[in-house]
Amino acid sequence: MAADPLLLAEVPIFSLLDEQERETLIGLLEHQTVKEGELIFRTGDHPDALYVIADGKVELFIHDDAGRKIALDELGPADVVGEVSFMDGGPRTASSAALTPTRLLRFERESLLEFVTRHPHAAIDLLTMMGKRLRSADEMLRHTVVQNANIVEEDQLTFGQRIADQVATFGGSWTFIITFGTVLVVWVIVNVILLSKPFDPYPFILLNLVLSMLAALQAPVIMMSQNRQSAKDRLNSDLDFKVNQKAELEIAHLHKKVDQLYEVTQQHWAQRDKEHRSGGQGKPAN
């Protein structure tokens, strides 16, 4: 079954290609079907191809030093998997597995050379889109995941939740206590002392009714505000998790860079030592 040109037009790195170039690309794509839970590639694998998701869902993930799985992203139709390693030839930086039965379009690295040979200017289109994606990824990395939970939560408030907060805030303030106490004292004085025919004589049945109605309305509104506080606590936990996850990834990345620098340094000094020994053996004896 041939790939759909409309699907390729929705793929970001192929979106600048013209119709003829997409037709050529379709002839170079291979179909691959993976089962739910089946790995597409592992971290460190040789990047022999990139994959366009035609149907299904794919998860990108890594494992930390403790062997725990850290999910990075969930991809769907028209998304591309493995394009960075495909372009630079480096090892895979993450693992990929199918979350559902998935149909993929596989593009071999050898086919890339054939495609560029047929359509040289298409290479500029591919590089342009890759540059845009890398620039976008760089901006995302520059943007810290640390967010103010109060600001995030404020943006998500509905009109009813804002009213509930205002009622709960006023009901738990000294302003409410003093005002309500003043109303009660005035009510009692008016009906006991000032009026010869009080509208609510002792034992103040009307006042009790008003207080009961007020309590019946105020209690659920305060509970709404308390429930939202629980949601805010969960939001705080989610933001803390994102911060910790990014910190773990950054630390793992730094460890990897240090290991690479150590390997390069060791190779450099080994080469220097080898050259030194070779030079020492070549000197004539006195």
Automatic annotation (TrEMBL):
- Note whether Cytoplasm occurs among the keywords: no
Tell me where the transmembrane regions lie: 167-190, 202-224
From what superkingdom does this record's organism come?
Bacteria
Which keywords appear in this protein's UniProt record, sorted alphabetically?
Coiled coil, Membrane, Transmembrane, Transmembrane helix
| Domain Cyclic nucleotide-binding residue range list | 13-116
Coiled-coil region list: 232-264
Does DNA damage show up as a keyword for this record?
no
Q: What is this protein called?
A: Cyclic nucleotide-binding protein
- Native organism is Koribacter versatilis (strain Ellin345)
